[in-house]
Automatic annotation (TrEMBL):
InterPro entries: Dimeric_a/b-barrel, EthD_dom. Residues 11-89 form the EthD domain. One of its GO terms (molecular function) is oxidoreductase activity. It holds the Pfam family EthD. This is EthD domain-containing protein. It comes from Edaphosphingomonas laterariae.
Amino acid sequence: MIKSIAFMPRRPGTSRADFRDHYEERHVPLALNWFRFSKYVRNHLQGEVEPGFDCLSEFWRVNPAEIGPLMAGPVGETMAEDERRFVDKPNIQAALAETADLGCGARPYEANASPKRLLLLQGSDRDTLVAAATDLARARAERTALDLLIPYDDRPLRCDAILSLWGAGDDAFAPPAGWTIVARLEAVAEETPPETLAKTPQPAV
C-alpha cells in the first residue's frame, strides 16, 4: 500500500469556505470516476491561519502505476481543468508518506468532520522522532499518527514530517533534539466512505 500527501492551496481570490465546498462537492466525486483509492482523506484547515495551503490531502492508492497513464490522457486534462477553478496549481506540493508504526494499529475510518491537530515538523533524525511520537501515542487516550515525508523532486517541502493528533493534548509533546515544530494547525477531516471508494471502476487505460 502506497500513501502520498498533498499540500493544497486555494486559488487566489477564493475563500477557504468556497475552496472546501468545491473540493468536496465537485472535485472528489470527479476524481472517483477514475482514481482508485483504498483510503482518501482531506484535512481542511480551520481558523485564520495562513500556512501557505488550505488542505492536507491524504491518498492511499490501490495501484500507483495506474496514475501516470490516467494523468497523461483526457482524464488528466479534465482533472487539471477542474483544479484550476479552485486550487493554486503551481504551489501544490506532494510527497510520498511513510507512516511510522506507533503501536496504534490500522487507522480506522474517520467520520466526516472529525477534528484533529496537525503538527508540521522539520528535522532529519527520523529514529528519534519516531521514538518521541511513540511515547506520546502511549500516553494519549486519543489516536496519534506520524508520517515521514519523502519529496518527489528537488523542491523543498514545507516540512519533513506530520504528526496528526485526534482530540486534545498535544501541548505535552516536546520534539526531540534536531526537530522543530514549524506549525500547529487545527483541521477537520473529510473521509470518503469505504463503500464509495469500492464503486470506482477499474481504469480503462
